[in-house]
Amino acid sequence: MEMWQLDAFEYRLTDAQGPNGLGTKVTVYQLLDDSTRFDVGTMCFADPENGTDAITTLDAAFTEHGVPQELLSDNGLAFSQARRGNISATERFLADRGCLGITGRGRHPQTQGKNERSHQTILRFLDANAPDTLERLTALIADYRTYYNYRRRHQALPGSMTPGQAWDAAEHHPTDGTPISHDVLQARADSYRDKAIADRGDEPVVVDLRATTIPAEHSEQAKPHGGRLRDSPDHVVITRTNPQIYFQSIRIKVPTTLVGTYQIVTTETEFMMFDAISGVESIYFPLPMRTDATQEPFPLWQVAGARIRDPKPAWLQKRQTYETEHFLADRDLTAPPAPLAGRFRRL
């Protein structure tokens, strides 16, 4: 109860209802007590990794077992945005209950190594039982938790006891429930952002997409000024009659569900648009932009690595199909992308 670990992974059902005859993708959230390896509340959902389902998983576990002092996760946007200079809904949920969300360093998977190893155990169990529906998967996860917690001996625990035995024997130290101020979370996010700026020796660029070119003061030759990420003096408005954005004079169509007012933040490796009212990240893609589109405007799902807030299933399927057809060789979109030149050509 001093620290839990939360991680999520995609799993394909055996229904063959996905693109190209593959199984439907679902998301499993695995939640473990760090010390005893006790599974406190693994759950599964139909949607890709997101903050709402992460919070649902945590809330159920908190109700059953209490609230730990800390929660360790990776730097996925559903869990933590601190290293991007923002605060996620999951971090706020935790803080309000007196639990501090913490993360491992980027590109440092050893921090979550124990959880990654636990994925292998549950994956072998699920593959052996081949669930074909989300309901069947949910039932299997419940069976797995009983087996894993109370019947399977864990080599990493003293005497190879089960996680359930370790959980029952351990002295628990949950949080005292005192809420953590959101100002503390923001100060930490600001610190991460300042450090990233200093390490890079460059200042993140904030650009109004209505401009046809990037202003000279934000060019690659601009000297760093230090300080935190600057607020854009203007906002970009996506309207229902013109649902598109402009990136370096290229027009990109977006769903009408994204109608609203946004603030734009770009770095050397990321383009992001945040809702001006809620602060929620709504549009994202890695930079330099990659697409095999041959004319514009083209839809955002044709940009490699793109994601949007609350995507419809049809949008996700189009994106997945397009990336499979055009970017199968480099599906690891976290790797540095190839330059845009040569990928996009005007007709």
Question: Could you please describe the fold and organization of this structure?
Answer:
Helix content is 28%, strand content 18%. By secondary structure, it is an alpha+beta fold. It has two domains: 3-183, Nucleotidyltransferase, domain 5; 204-330, no CATH class. The strands form three sheets. Strands 3-2-1-4-5 form a five-stranded mixed sheet, with helices on both faces. Strands 6-9-10-11-13 form a five-stranded antiparallel sheet, with no helix packed on it. The longest helix has 19 residues, at 182-200. The N and C termini lie far apart (60 Å). The model is unreliable at 202-233 and 332-347 (pLDDT under 50).
Largest sheet: 5 strands, mixed
Which residue ranges are poorly predicted, with pLDDT under 50 across at least 5 consecutive positions?
202-233, 332-347
The fold-level CATH name of the largest domain is: Nucleotidyltransferase, domain 5
Radius of gyration: 22 Å
Please give the domain count. Answer: 2
Summary tags:
alpha+beta; Nucleotidyltransferase, domain 5; five-stranded mixed β-sheet; five-stranded antiparallel β-sheet; 7 helices; globular
Task: Describe, in short, the structure shown.
By secondary structure, the chain is of the alpha+beta class.
Summarize the SSE layout with pairings:
Elements: E1 3-12, E2 25-33, E3 43-45, H1 51-65, E4 70-73, H2 89-96, E5 100-103, H3 113-129, H4 134-150, H5 163-169, H6 182-200, E6 236-238, E7 244-247, E8 250-253, E9 260-266, E10 270-275, E11 281-286, E12 298-299, E13 307-308, H7 313-326
Parallel strand pairs: 1-4, 4-5, 8-12
Antiparallel strand pairs: 1-2, 2-3, 6-9, 7-8, 9-10, 10-11, 11-13
